[in-house]
Amino acid sequence: MKKTVFATAFALVSFAIANAQESKTTAALNAPPQGISKDLGEAILNELRQIHTLLEKQQAAPRPEQAQANAKISTAGFSIGSEDAPLTLVEFADYQCPFCRQFHAAVYDRLKKDYIDSGKIRFVSRDLPLEIHSNAMGAANAARCAAEQDRFWPMREALIAHGDKLESKEIESYAQAIGLNVDQFRSCVASDKYLPSIRADVAEAASAGITATPTFVLGKRTGGHIDGVKLVGAQPFEVFAKLLSAEAVK
User: What is the pLDDT of residues 123-133, one digit of tens each?
Assistant: First the structure.
């Protein structure tokens, strides 16, 4: 357990500080990242402080191995885009993660317009609720409950956009806003019926060396799997575009 927590924290710090374009010092944890909203900047700073605390507690733990360049994973999950798209992009996300929120605020809409809607990639959503986020597992379960009423994607969007407000009453307000039968939704959420399948996502992510969110795997789908390039963090759109161009010609 300690090794898993350390690996997760180490991976998150590595890309989080890079995304914020700050130096790798304790002082950087008190300076707002540039180029993003004040609320999101504060959420990222809080995340970094929490991870920094975890790292301090785990100083005696062994340094995790470097992240693999590739990962082989299943493409099972909630997906959008053409079934015939030449490439598949899988995102492992945590609804409470401010870096997932940053990716969706700054990159996702353009990625959807230029690549998903145009049939160039198929996008798959999978869950990786981290131990440091107390509401992430419940939010993942709620998104799957919304899928029972064919509203997974609107709920996913609402949960990510409000990743700092994921208590049960707040999630029910999102359910009402997107037009769900709230009584049916509430019953599903209370049953925790999707926790086993969420944990299966977590287990597969771990087996592929994926410990931080958001993490993406891009490749060509073969028999319900992709063996593709792994990209960690809320990278700029240009990074995705370059990677997509390189993979398209393989």
Answer: 999 999 999 99
Q: At what angle do helices 168-177 and 136-147 cross, to 10 degrees?
A: 30
The domains found in the chain, sorted by start residue, are 2-57 (no CATH), 70-248 (3.40.30.10)
d(C-alpha 197, C-alpha 78), whole Å: 12
Beta bridge partners of residue 216, listed in sequence order? 91, 231
Q: How many CB atoms lie within 10 A of CB 49?
A: 13
Using alpha carbons, select from 26, 247, 5, 2 the residue that is nearest to residue 131: 5
Token pair listed for 169: 């009453």
Dihedral Cα 175, 45, 52, 204, nearest 10 deg? 40
- Mean pLDDT lowest among 27-41, 134-148, 183-197: 27-41
DSSP state of 26: G
3-state percent breakdown (helix, strand, coil) of the chain, nearest 5: 50, 15, 35
| DSSP track, 39-91 | HHHHHHHHHHHHHHHHHHHTTTSPPPPPPPSEEEEE--SEEES-TT-SEEEEE
What is the rounded average pLDDT of the residues 59-84?
72
Scan for tokens 């969420």, then name that residue: 198
Contacts of 204 (CB under 8 A, 6+ apart): 73, 74
- 29: DSSP letter: G
